[in-house]
Every structure is written in structure tokens, then in C-alpha cells.
Design a protein that fits this description.
- By secondary structure, the chain is of the alpha+beta class.
- It contains three helices and four strands; from the N terminus they run αααββββ.
- It has a two-stranded antiparallel sheet with strand order 1-2. Strands 3-4 form a two-stranded antiparallel sheet.
- Strand 1 and strand 2 form a beta hairpin.
- The longest helix has 21 residues.
- The radius of gyration is 30 Å and the shape is rod-shaped.
- About 0% of the residues are buried.
- The model has no long low-confidence stretch (mean pLDDT about 80).
């Protein structure tokens, strides 16, 4: 797409060639980086997890044990989110072995 600049008495204006979207590249990249950093920060802030009621946790662990289905357990320890994958092998008193 070209713009007719023949109206201008100045050669510089008549010969000007617009670079189009190239001039916006740095701005767009900066905005994208800022948005991604903001998203990652919000994602890290969302790491606080809601605990399930004890009866529901016991029910899910019991189902995993009975059906020998692999489970993923997420738990929070010292503001760090941890994950454990495995099978429930046994219940010992108030503990579960995965």
C-alpha cells in the first residue's frame, strides 16, 4: 500500500516510505513480555491451594487403595506446593503410605 505524496513540494516527503508494522514491533514485543510476566506472577500467587474436607480425602484415598488406581496428591509445605504420584499401598493409623 502506498500513499500518494505528490502534493508536497519537498522531495523528502514525496520519497518517504513507511515501514508499516515494523515500527510497532518493539512496542508489541514489550507489551507481550509485560503481559506474560504479569500472568506468570499471578500464576505463582495462585499457588495457595484449598484443602479438601477430611471425609472426602479419606474417601478418595480409600477408592485409590481399593481399585489400585494411581493418584496425584498435592500438598503445601512452607509456602511450597509439592506433588506426589503413586498408589496407596496401606493405611497405618492416621497415615497413608503411597
Amino acid at each position: 500500500m502506498s500513499v500518494d505524496r505528490s502534493y508536497s513540494p519537498y522531495e523528502v516527503i514525496r520519497a518517504y516510505h513507511d515501514r508499516g508494522m515494523m515500527k510497532w514491533g518493539a512496542f508489541a514485543t514489550g507489551e507481550l513480555t509485560k503481559a506474560q510476566n504479569s500472568f506468570e506472577k499471578e500464576k505463582k500467587d495462585d499457588k495457595v491451594i484449598q484443602t479438601l474436607p477430611h471425609h472426602l480425602v479419606l474417601h478418595l484415598l480409600n477408592q485409590s487403595f481399593s481399585n489400585q488406581v494411581q493418584i496425584k496428591v498435592k500438598y503445601q509445605s512452607k509456602n511450597k506446593l509439592n506433588e506426589v504420584y503413586g498408589f496407596v499401598s496401606e493405611f497405618i493409623k492416621n497415615q497413608v503410605r503411597i
